[in-house]
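seq/struct pair 1
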Amino acid sequence: MFASRVSYRLLLGLLLSAGLWFTACDPDEDFLTGDAVAIRFELDTLRFDTVFTELGSATRSIKIYNESNQPIKLDEIFIEGTTGVEFIFNADGFPGGVVEDAIIWDNDSIFVFVEVTIDPDQPISTSPFVIEDRLVVKTGSKEQSVLLEAWGQNANYFPSRFNRGVPVVLSCENQTILWDSELPYVIYGEIFIDDCLLQVAAGTHIYVHGGIAKN
């Protein structure tokens, strides 16, 4: 009888404690929501900077910060899906398409893991080289986003895969540069050609991403 009474009291105490814990940890009225939410992304661009030479998949992560003194609730986290390339994500342990009501506690952060899968063996006419999409966080009428940037088929990137927004002067003192690779050439960034002859072999594929200028 004594053991049963103790077990009953212990069970009742655990139930009361659990009820108090849930009440304390999830009061909707304590969360900032909608337009009142302010977040900060760890990065403005999440880059998958591997040139895929076979069916490729890569995973990167980014943090979303809540720097306020009050917990927040995010309406939606999703990927725009404007490129036709498969980006998938997991936000704080919850897989997308759309993650709703994600919570970030005060002065805390959550991880978002993003994965991209690209088939570089598609025909050159259809295979993407530089793929861009956006990871979007919606709170009320506000949308904040991070650029997702991935590299597709194996190619010759010129001047390099890291020259976005960095002008480069191509100068070879009136010499000749020959492009004759079977792989396509992707011009990425801004190139200023000065005293240089570029000779391109017949059948060479050239793609431009980010602007080209001739001086």
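seq/struct pair 2
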Amino acid sequence: MDNVVLLGPPGTGKTHLAIALGIKAAEASYPVAFDTATGWIARLATAHAQARLDRELRKLNRYRLLIIDEVGYLPFDTAAASLFFQLIASRYETGSVIVTSNLTFSRWGETLGDDIVAAATIDRLVHHAHVIALDGDSYRTRGHRPPPPPAARTKN
């Protein structure tokens, strides 16, 4: 049960790759669920408010693969960071996750609001993980840039 962590700037294909891996897992009959990090946190916060967080985490563990998209785009408050840690910890060595983030691990403390929670989360996430750093320009803006000036163009 390996995890995959896709790191890189916006527009480099992290979500696209995560969805493609999720589709391949589903085609191989693995139960898969996808949501953004804020979507997962909202789901867990609702369960926590209704005193059924443990039940919700057990329910999510029925999925062999959870895809958690966009970690780091919006900061978590303390309660959300705790829920995110609990989600990752509940899957540790029992189920796989694919996580996408625009932040390097060194900046996860900013999103999770606490370097200790970030370190504990990252530790469990990367223990059995393939970490892939993507780089390059955003595919969304590639067609919107002006061409280089004539002097900068290479001659054939």
